Automatic annotation (TrEMBL):
Coiled coil: none annotated. Keywords: ATP-binding, Nucleotide-binding, Transport. Transmembrane segments: none annotated. This is ABC transporter domain-containing protein. SMART domains: AAA (SM00382).
Length: 201
């Protein structure tokens, strides 16, 4: 089965005050793959994701997303990505629906169909018109994921997506991610689940 590469991380390093926080990291991710970062606290997982998203500068190396360098062609590279780093950005005084509208308005045209679709995907239909301040943590996580999916990204980057979820929420989220990855149909998930190890330096 043909694999198509969505991300190439090449010799990626982050140096802060002369110290390597991330050192010469190399990996590729194919479409439809689910990849997890495993490493102890402070080993550089969040920093790596932030570099992949252009949220922090890259000291050495590069990240190529869908053929575009995040360093030299950030705008095009970011078109393929949806992300949540640490906690989703949500307005508590707005409803879930209005949060999605607001977010979509910032990034392009409002498309009510795509909003309805992501709400269905994460299973928030019943509470989408309630204010976010009334949501449980798990509902907020799901809304964050819905938001990250709005522009049908080829690559979804989630940092600690199961934070604060109860066991059933965790398995629901896992099912959702598998379902999303399967939609790519390029590779079978069973063959491709893998983990990128990043050892503490
Ligand atoms: N802006 C910064 N200035 C100095 N050091 C930083 C900065 N950002 C991160 N670090 C350091 O970089 C290292 C990696 O942090 P990072 O947040 O990437 O780790 P992590 O693998 O995501 O950890 P966790 O599992 O706790 O989320 C840590 O030692 C942290 O203290
Ligand atoms: Mg982290």
């Amino acid at each position: 089965m043909e694999k198509s590469v969505i991300v190439e991380v090449k010799n990626l390093s982050k140096i802060i005050n002369g110290n390597y926080i991330v050192k010469k990291l190399n990996f590729t991710i194919n479409r439809g793959e689910i990849v997890g970062f495993l490493g102890e606290n402070g080993s550089g997982k969040t920093t790596t994701m932030k570099m992949m998203l252009g949220l922090t500068s890259i000291s050495q190396g590069d990240v190529i997303i869908n053929g575009y360098s995040i360093k030299s062609n950030k705008k095009k590279a970011l078109k393929s990505i949806g992300a949540i780093i640490e906690t989703p950005e949500l307005y508590k005084f707005l409803s879930g629906y209005d949060n999605l509208m607001y977010f979509q308005r910032m990034s392009g045209r409002i498309n009510r169909e795509s909003i309805a679709k992501v709400v269905r995907m994460v299973g928030l239909e019943n509470v989408i018109n309630d204010k976010v301040k009334t949501y449980s943590l798990g509902m907020r996580q799901k809304l964050g994921i819905a938001q990250s999916l709005l522009n049908s990204p080829a690559l979804l980057i989630l940092d600690e997506p199961t934070n604060g979820l109860d066991p059933s929420g965790m398995s629901e989220l896992k099912e959702l991610l598998i379902k999303l990855a399967k939609k790519e149909k390029k590779v079978r998930i069973g063959d491709s689940e893998r983990i990128v190890y990043h050892e503490r330096l």
